[in-house]
Design a protein that fits this description.
The chain has about 400 residues and is of the alpha/beta class. It is built from 13 helices and 16 strands. Helix 4 links the parallel strand 5 and strand 6.
């Protein structure tokens, strides 16, 4: 008898021809998350098993990995005799609870039918464990018995996984990461759907600070625990923003600024072979996120723009931010470039033709310069920076 971790795949079971690809990617993500621990992984089409001498620590890390429905600490033995199953079941139930036994006999060559195994295990527990009662509708403890070719697994309850798809199974996206509450939550939601993320951050030194940049790096690093290790592309947006402020209708400052950001993000997304651009916009939350504003800003690109939080309200977003550990970092009082040069009366329903006419007053070459001077953060431990383009 030994303690072992069982992983149930959940949504991965909806896949057919490419199911092995999803399982293999999940395996790689798990190996990366547990690379400093001594583990042994075995897997098949329906389950994954991990052997380790640090069961609780492994379970804690697995709880942050997408693609897992449930994580179970169970007892395993190669001996599938009923007498041995009785002993295993006795070790996963406490005295004085209501219980039910549920048996899954995936190896149909096992001679005792599932319902008969459940009945006999239940009878043994009632006789040998104090103060037990059977409750088939709402038991305090559900004893699960899984009989497979290699042996028998017995367990009572598991830890819920993150669900979704393993990061990296649905391609790469570019997240517009601002340093606020919303964008990093949008990134988390994208990771849950199997998207691997790189990040783009617009800063306006000296109007914004290096502390604001560090806040974005910290948010990016927080997403590492969910299996993402993408690059951070830092764009110096100062000259572009000052150009807009000096030469255009200030009521359209945010609209024009967002259009410039989308132009840059599109060019970068194409360069890094991303499949879509993600952001943290929520419909109607601020002036630049009305449907009219979104339409006018989107006009500069035909690239897919995905807004995971489009229908979320602020309280829902804050709740997720707290759950994933990004909220306290996001509310640090370091302004990003979207909060400086804010007009007193930003246009809520911008006119596309007028926005384009205002845009003609601007120096388009500044976009090329911003991309040329871009910084890439590739390894936060060494704070390695390199140029691109």
């Amino acid at each position: 008898m030994k303690e072992i971790i069982m992983i149930k795949y959940g949504e991965l079971t909806t896949k057919k021809d490419n199911r092995n690809f999803f399982i293999n990617t999940l395996t790689k993500n798990i190996e990366n998350a547990l690379s400093d621990l001594n583990i042994t992984i075995t897997k098949d089409y329906y389950r994954m098993f991990i052997e380790t001498n640090k069961v609780d620590e492994v379970i804690d890390r697995l709880s942050n990995i997408f693609g897992i429905h449930e994580i179970v600490k169970c007892l395993f033995d190669e001996n599938r005799d009923l007498d041995n199953i009785y002993k295993l079941a006795s070790n996963v139930i406490d005295e004085g609870v209501t219980f039910k036994v549920d048996t899954n006999r995936s190896d149909k060559t096992y001679e005792t039918p599932s319902m008969e195994v459940s009945r006999k295990v239940g009878a043994y527990l009632l006789k040998n464990v104090k103060n037990l009662k059977v409750d088939v509708n709402n038991p305090q403890t559900l004893i699960n018995v899984e009989i497979r070719r290699e042996g028998v697994y017995v367990y009572s309850k598991g830890v819920s996984g993150k669900g979704g798809y393993p990061v990296g199974t649905l391609g790469k996206g570019l997240l517009m990461l601002s340093g606020g509450i919303d964008s990093v939550v949008a990134g988390y939601m994208a990771l849950k759907r199997g998207v691997k993320l790189d990040f783009i951050y617009f800063e306006s030194l000296p109007h914004t600070s290096l502390e604001a940049r560090q806040k974005v790096i910290d948010l990016k690093n927080t997403l590492k625990k969910f299996g993402n290790s993408g690059k951070l592309y830092i764009i110096n947006f100062t000259k572009i923003q000052e150009d807009i402020y000096r030469n255009t209708d200030n009521d359209y400052l945010i609209t024009l600024m967002r259009r410039k950001m989308y132009k840059i993000a599109t060019r970068l997304a194409i360069k890094i072979k991303a499949n879509a651009i993600f952001n943290g916009e929520s419909i109607g939350q601020v002036a630049s996120q009305t449907l009219t504003s979104i339409k006018v800003v989107n006009e500069v690109t035909s690239f897919p723009i995905i807004r995971p939080l489009a229908s979320f309200d602020k309280l829902e977003i804050i709740k997720i931010a707290n759950e994933i550990g990004t909220y306290e970092t996001s509310i640090k009082p370091y302004e990003d470039c979207c909060t400086i040069f804010v007009p007193k009366h930003p246009v809520i329903n911008p006119n596309l033709m007028y926005a384009k006419s205002e845009e003609e007053k601007l120096n388009e070459e500044l976009l090329n310069n911003a991309l040329k001077d871009m910084i890439i953060i590739t390894d936060e431990k060494e704070n390695k920076e390199e140029d691109i383009l």
